[in-house]
Design goal:
The protein is an alpha/beta fold. The chain folds into 3 domains: about 130 residues, no CATH class; about 120 residues, 3-Layer(aba) Sandwich (Rossmann fold), CATH 3.40.50; about 290 residues, 3-Layer(aba) Sandwich (Rossmann fold), CATH 3.40.50.720. The protein has 23 helices and 22 strands. A 9-stranded mixed beta sheet has the order 10-9-8-11-12-13-18-22-21, with helices on both faces. The protein has a 7-stranded mixed beta sheet with strand order 3-4-2-1-5-6-7, with helices on both faces.
């Protein structure tokens, strides 16, 4: 038994030793590129010396016998010295370590430099050591040396490139590149070198007329943007690659408006950053998204102001796992808060944003808490323990049709939840409270919009109460008997800190929960139909990061009681949005994918407004952020109505819309 064990151990040791020795052999073995480098060095030495001898031969009418003995002796004696010079200079320029298959302008410059230096050393060396040679010796020598040393290297690149082209049996996609500048050329070269890419670049498009009807690496520049449709038909283009990183959003939009009519797949560089960092390649191209068609210039915010307002502060985001809340958390995390508190009732969303932030910001002091804004006890315990200085209240029910069938839930979560969170913020010394509102609060026709208008009224009332110290008019909206003590805690607490309450109102955000874009994509993936409620329905759109950055900027302008209104740009027809998305997916609307009009849903209107008729507007330092003049109302009476509204919602009163209409006079429900 022991013998067998020893034999086994010996076998294992011998195998291990053989593996080690094998690795050593492999490491010590001569690499293929090293063999090529030696051959290249021999070639350089041979042709460098032959070039100068040829110059001497040419000087004397190509008659060897006519060459004076002293010239020939000097040339032959200098050959060993010049051989060493060539090898040293070329090696110091890394000309034997380059991958010549990818030779470019940089390699050409190094070749020129190396030949220039060896030429100077040739002239000085042979003249001082042996004899000054005829002019033709130097002239032909340097020209021929540069020619031979350059041709061999770039010939290798050319052969490699042609071989890679021939090795591609078939091209499954014919490609047009828009932008015949440096980015377009880099992209073309990347496609040529990537073996796994089955693209054939057929033409370039560029608005610079000086480039028209010329070629880049054999690929014609067909014309300008007006020739896109013709070029697509002529070359049977499948894919359009847009390589214009310096183009403005408006220019890109105009270009995409043409390209989407071709039915081709479209990809584009994400932006100027990739070009400046040299990160231009086919793998970095992104699919063209609907937001690219909006053509809005990048949102500009004052990062210094935002940083100063958040850095070193304890910041809390309610509904922090939602689409708006999670983006708020991402941007706040990048502004060095003392602590970021994520508060959400849905643990899956909270977990996702927690994991993302912990991996992105390793030094972030992050606290993730599960709880409902309708639970006074939970809110008070959180505010008492962490004392947040800034609160972004994004927790809300936002889905219009669902809230129409569950109106009491809309009031409980949106209105009562906002009231309870605001009460806790005021009680425990929060300095700024920012409500995330919506343009659906303007002249609402649905209960969700009406509930958000009530939230704005809560915020205006809370700011007045905090400023004037009228805490005695606040009602107890506990809704559950066991929460009464928690509410009494607020009533009996001496409040000394002034809390600034503001609201920020904006429209739809692309890609948010409940947005039409994800729904349209699912419907297209299934082959249609794409459902649009009405052919004339319009909405304002902004991307989530854009909206959130403006929310953070608006927070820095807060003095208390304002309703900030974000400029959402030009309204967009949902029907146009759906058709563009179908085209971006490579289909034809109403041909490949049907569009079906389903009619307006309960509480839905054709257009959204950003301000009520009674509200004025005031400019801020940011042209995209405006302040709506608050509408005056009796706040004592409002608080009494609010108490009745809370009772009705907790009792699931089916007539709650009537009560809401009494409070929000601009509410025009489609049914009562």
């Amino acid at each position: 038994m022991e013998d067998n064990t020893k034999k086994t151990e010996q076998n294992i040791d011998s195998k291990a030793e053989s593996k080690k020795s094998g690795k050593r052999c492999k490491c010590k073995g001569i690499q293929h590129w090293q063999v090529l480098a030696v051959l290249m060095a021999v070639y350089d030495v041979l042709f460098a010396n032959v070039s100068y001898l040829f110059g001497l031969w040419a000087r004397f009418d190509f008659q060897y016998s006519s060459i004076p003995t002293e010239y020939m002796d000097a040339a032959m004696k200098f050959i060993p010295i010049y051989t060493g010079i060539v090898l040293f200079v070329f090696a110091s320029h890394y000309l034997y370590q380059s991958i010549w298959r990818f030779a470019s302008y940089n390699e050409l410059l190094r070749l020129f430099s190396a030949n220039a230096i060896t030429f100077v050393l040739q002239v000085v060396g042979i003249s001082f050591l042996f004899k000054r040679m005829p002019f033709a010796y130097y002239f032909f020598g340097v020209i021929l040396q540069f020619f031979f040393t350059t041709v061999i290297r770039f010939f290798y690149r050319f052969v490699s490139l042609e071989r890679s082209k021939r090795n591609t049996k078939t091209f499954t996609k014919k490609v047009m590149i828009i932008g015949a500048g440096e980015a377009g050329q880099v992209l073309l070269r990347d496609i040529y070198h990537a073996k796994e890419i089955d693209y054939k670049v057929c033409c370039f498009i560029d608005d610079n007329e000086n480039k028209w009807h010329r070629n880049i690496d054999g690929v014609p520049v067909y014309g300008g943007r007006d020739d896109i449709m013709t070029a697509v038909d002529k070359y049977q283009i499948d894919t359009i690659l847009i390589a214009m990183p310096s183009a403005s959003k408006a220019q890109t939009r105009d270009l995409l408006d043409i390209c989407k009519e071709t039915g081709c797949e479209m990809k584009m560089l994400p932006g100027m950053y990739q070009f400046l960092t040299g990160d231009v390649s086919l793998s970095k191209m992104k699919e063209v998204a609907v937001e690219d068609l909006l053509g809005r210039d990048p949102i500009k915010v004052n990062l210094t102001e935002i940083l100063n307002s958040i850095e070193g502060k304890v910041v809390m985001v309610t509904g922090g796992g939602g689409s708006i809340g999670s983006e708020l958390c991402r941007q706040i995390a990048g502004h060095n808060p003392e602590r970021l508190i994520i508060f959400d009732v849905y643990e899956n969303n909270a977990y996702d944003i927690e994991q993302e932030l912990r991996s992105t910001y390793s030094n972030l002091n992050l606290t993730v808490l599960i709880g409902s804004v309708r639970d006074s006890r939970r809110l008070n315990s959180v505010f008492e323990k962490y004392r947040p200085e800034i609160v972004y209240h994004a927790a809300a029910h936002k889905h219009v049709p669902l809230m129409e069938t569950s109106p009491c839930e809309s009031i409980k979560n949106n209105v009562i939840g906002t009231y309870k969170t605001a009460c806790a913020a005021m009680t425990y010394g929060t300095k700024r409270f920012v409500l995330i509102s919506t343009d659906k609060a303007v002249n609402p026709t649905n209960i969700m919009g009406a509930s958000k208008r009530l939230c704005e009224m809560v915020i205006q009332s809370m700011d007045f109460i905090s400023r004037e110290g009228k805490h005695d008019i606040l009602p107890n909206l506990s809704g559950h008997n066991d929460e009464t003590n928690s509410e009494k805690l607020f009533m009996n607490t001496k409040i000394t800190t002034r809390t600034e309450f503001v609201a920020v109102r904006f429209g739809n955000v692309l890609g948010s929960n409940g947005s039409v874009i994800p729904l349209f994509k699912k419907q297209i993936a299934k082959g249609g139909p794409v459902t649009v409620t009405h052919p004339d329905i319009i909405r304002y759109f902004m991307t989530i990061p854009e909206a959130v950055s403006l929310v953070l900027q608006a927070g820095t302008y807060a003095k208390g009681g304002e309703i900030f209104v974000l400029d959402m740009g030009e309204p967009v027809k949902i029907d146009t949005l759906a058709r563009n998305l179908i085209k971006l997916c490579g289909y034809k609307p109403d041909v490949d994918i049907k569009i079906q009009y389903t009619g307006l849903r309960p509480g839905e209107k054709l257009y959204e407004e950003k301000l009520m008729a009674e509200e004025g507007i005031e400019r801020t330092a940011n042209e995209l952020i405006h302040i709506g003049k608050p509408i005056a109302f009796d706040m004592v009476e409002f608080m009494n109505h609010l108490e009745a509204l809370a009772d009705a919602s907790y009792n699931n009163d089916e007539e709650i819309r009537r009560l809401v209409k009494e409070i929000v006079t601009t509410y025009h429900p489609s049914h009562l």
